[in-house]
Design a protein that fits this description.
DNA-binding protein; DNA-binding; two-stranded antiparallel sheet; about 70 residues; 4 helices; SinI_DNA-bd; DNA-bd_dom_put_sf; elongated; mainly alpha
Length: about 70
């Protein structure tokens, strides 16, 4: 997918995408001066950016504490 396609798909500005690629925070390919993105890698990356709910955080804490007691 191209830069413009990613911007439309992920509802992100092109300038933000450029910033993320220059800091190597988003998976991408560069051929010459053009940037390309794998839809599968972008979908995985977007899912990793998910913000956990309070319940998910509490569950992580409970699991961590349960493991420490052993």
């Amino acid at each position: 997918m191209t830069l413009q396609q990613l911007a439309d798909y992920a509802s992100m500005s092109k300038s933000l995408i450029y910033k993320l690629t220059s800091s190597r925070e988003i998976p991408h390919l560069k051929r010459g001066k053009r940037l390309y993105f794998s839809k599968m890698e972008i979908d995985e990356w977007l899912l990793k950016q998910k913000i956990k709910t309070v319940d998910e955080i509490q569950n992580d804490v409970d699991n961590y504490l349960a493991k420490k007691k052993c």
